[in-house]
Write a structure and sequence with these properties.
The protein is mainly beta and about 240 residues long. Helix content is about 5%, strand content about 35%. Strands 1, 2, 3, 4, 5, 6 and 7 form a 7-stranded antiparallel beta sheet that branches. Strands 8, 9, 10, 11, 12 and 13 form a 6-stranded antiparallel beta sheet that branches. β1 and β2 form a beta hairpin. The longest helix has 7 residues, at about 185-190. The N and C termini lie far apart (about 60 Å).
Length: about 240
């Protein structure tokens, strides 16, 4: 009989680096307080970027923890365009490896509505945020055509290589590849904001190298990828969001 499948070990909780001294502090006019506990040395996060991060969220009033990736033992991957305003303002400028404490007024958090049972209305929030990695984006040519929105169908030429520099897969202008919404986490985040005719280099962290079940391709999972992509056409299923 075949050996029984071995269940992977559950991630273990990680200590929250909350007792580090503040090395830099900024108070914004809108009430956001940014405190750097450790300055990173890697790629600098840009507004609207995408990150792999650990975070520990507390209510400012009583310190009650409402969400913590540290406690789960696994970082989360997400675009800044999809999180609360306090994160959108407070995370850019961090570098990979950096740790920052954000004190976020309710108006930049969940406001008068709150969120679920754990975040009451009008709650000020405190987050410890540690940047584990980030989607690195280099625009080699800015396009002049239609811009990629939040749910796009993208027609592309591209070359994808693995950490060893060897080509994994590619598509050409004559035989392009069509990416559908949600097909690949890193590509979905990396194509956002491109304009038709543009060329972009993406360095996708292993945590964002996730292909939806049933999607085409045999790319290896859980390894970092480098993608040189040219956007040939886009069909937006949802219009691009206006810039603030």
């Amino acid at each position: 009989t075949p050996p029984a499948a071995v269940e992977p070990a559950a991630p273990k909780a990680i200590p929250v680096p909350s007792d580090l001294p503040v090395v830099n502090k900024t108070e914004r006019e809108d009430g956001l307080i940014i405190e750097d506990l450790k300055i990173g040395e890697g790629y600098e996060i840009q507004p609207g970027g995408a990150v792999v991060a650990h975070y520990h969220g507390m209510l400012k009033a009583d310190g009650k923890v409402f969400d913590s990736s540290y406690e789960r033992g696994e970082p989360a991957s997400f675009p800044l365009s999809g999180v609360i305003q306090g994160w959108q303002e407070g995370v850019p400028g961090m570098k990979i490896g950096g740790i920052r404490r954000l004190t976020i007024p309710a108006k930049l958090g969940y406001g008068e509505r709150g969120a679920g049972a754990d975040i009451p209305p009008n709650s000020d929030l405190v987050f410890i945020i540690q940047i584990v990695d980030a989607l690195q984006v280099v625009d080699e040519k800015v396009g002049e055509g239609e811009e990629v929105g939040p749910r796009p169908v993208c027609v592309t030429a591209y070359t994808m290589t693995g950490p060893d520099g060897k080509e994994i897969e590619s598509a050409t202008k004559d035989h392009p590849f069509i990416w559908v919404p949600g097909e690949h986490m890193g590509m979905s985040m990396g194509l956002e904001g491109m304009k038709v005719g543009g060329k972009r280099k993406l360095m996708i962290p292993k945590e964002m190298n996730q292909t939806a079940p049933g999607a085409p391709g045999t790319r290896p999972a859980n390894v970092p990828l480098t993608v040189e992509v040219e956007l040939l056409a886009v069909k937006n299923l949802v219009p691009p969001q206006p810039k603030h």
